[in-house]
């Protein structure tokens, strides 16, 4: 006896099962995406706002558990840099560059870690091994610093200029470039670069301090017209005062130190010690 209703029922069951499987597959895919997104978020937190030591411990656990995941090794290397553990950071970045999924940016990070431990020769060799077609802001900034260390001034200027053109936040690089000019004795060019750096980041105190030094090199000890806090003003007066004394303008230096002490919102111990030493 034939059962004409059996085939539609079977087909219906197959369709239901297919729909269930598709639904389960979609749920699994969403769960995996959520896990990856969550892990990426944790990784970002560890690399930015977490305590450096905590980040190092986190990524160490991850690399031990999943040694083939290059993202964990990169996180560990960056965390070691943040923690100031330079020698370990160099070793970690070397390990990253030897992994199958390593990229040119990893070699750039290795060069950065080498510069942080003052291994300039190794940093230069690392950068030289990167193809010239890999043109990034950080690569050129490091190239400029290496050229500076070799006193290759024209080469350094060229790399600094290229690096500045490759970023929307060039304050730090302009400050480095200005300091390079200052060490060469070109205080006017240095002053221009420090001033430009401050226009990009008016909270960059290092550039403000360097600007005062560049002006003091020409015996201009008045503070530049800058946006600064009361404490910053006192610190810059202290810098200008010490520069004046070093150049033999002792009376001007003493006056600046006294003004720095009077201006600082709290007890300004470095300026007090400098003034006492001068009077002694």
Automatic annotation (TrEMBL):
<feature type="signal peptide">
    <location>
        <begin position="1"/>
        <end position="19"/>
    </location>
</feature>
<dbReference type="InterPro" id="IPR011990">
    <property type="entry name" value="TPR-like_helical_dom_sf"/>
</dbReference>
<protein>
    <submittedName>
        <fullName>Tetratricopeptide repeat protein</fullName>
    </submittedName>
</protein>
<keyword id="KW-0732">Signal</keyword>
């Amino acid at each position: 006896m034939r059962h004409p209703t059996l085939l539609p029922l079977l087909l219906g069951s197959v369709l239901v099962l297919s729909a269930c499987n598709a639904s389960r597959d979609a749920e699994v895919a969403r769960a995996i995406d959520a896990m990856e997104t969550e892990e990426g978020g944790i990784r970002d937190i560890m690399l930015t706002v977490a305590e450096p030591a905590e980040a190092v411990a986190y990524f160490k656990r991850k690399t031990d558990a999943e040694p083939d995941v290059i993202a964990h090794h990169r996180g560990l290397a960056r965390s070691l840099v943040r923690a100031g553990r330079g020698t370990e950071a160099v070793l970690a970045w070397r390990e990253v560059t030897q992994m199958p999924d390593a990229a040119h940016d990893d070699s750039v990070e290795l060069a950065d870690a080498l510069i942080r431990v003052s291994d300039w020769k190794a940093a230069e060799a690392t950068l030289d091994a990167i193809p010239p077609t890999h043109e990034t802001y950080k690569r050129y900034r490091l190239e400029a610093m290496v050229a500076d260390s070799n006193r290759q001034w024209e080469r350094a200027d060229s790399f600094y200029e290229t690096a500045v053109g490759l970023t929307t936040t060039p304050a730090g690089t302009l400050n480095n470039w200005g300091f390079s000019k200052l060490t060469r004795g070109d205080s006017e060019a240095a002053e221009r670069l420090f001033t430009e750096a401050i226009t990009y980041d008016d909270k960059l105190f290092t550039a403000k301090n360097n600007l005062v030094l560049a002006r003091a090199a020409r015996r201009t000890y008045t503070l530049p017209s800058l946006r600064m806090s009361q404490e910053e003003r006192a610190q810059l007066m202290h810098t200008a005062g010490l520069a004046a004394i070093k150049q033999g303008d002792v009376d001007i230096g003493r006056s600046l130190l006294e003004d720095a002490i009077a201006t600082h919102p709290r007890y300004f111990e470095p300026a007090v010690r400098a003034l006492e030493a001068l009077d002694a």
